[in-house]
Amino acid sequence: MYNVTFYENRELIMSKLTSTIPTENENINIKGRKATVINIEKLDEKKINVHVSLEKVVKKVTNLEPNKKRK
Question: How many domains does the chain have?
């Protein structure tokens, strides 16, 4: 079992105890978001830091006419 810690831009995203280690350029899901593994650092036999790049979430903007009320 490995303690895998996921980071994006030096910010901790999630820590996970798992039996598998992700590989570089692998597409994974973290907290329901798509991510790509950029770099893997092995600190010792059990601790592993994984740097990922999360896919940007694009929010849709609703175009409401100014005279129309929301229902």
Answer: 1
Q: Which amino acid is at 29?
A: N
Could you tell me if residue 68 is inside a domain? no
Residue 66 lies in a domain: no
Q: Going by C-beta distance under 8 Å and a sequence separation of 6 or more, which residues neighbour residue 42? A: 48
- CA-based nearest residue to 45, from 11, 21, 22: 21
- pLDDT tens per residue across all 71 residues of the chain: 999 999 999 999 999 999 999 999 999 999 899 999 999 999 999 999 999 999 988 888 777 676 766 66
What is the reported pTM? Answer: 0.78
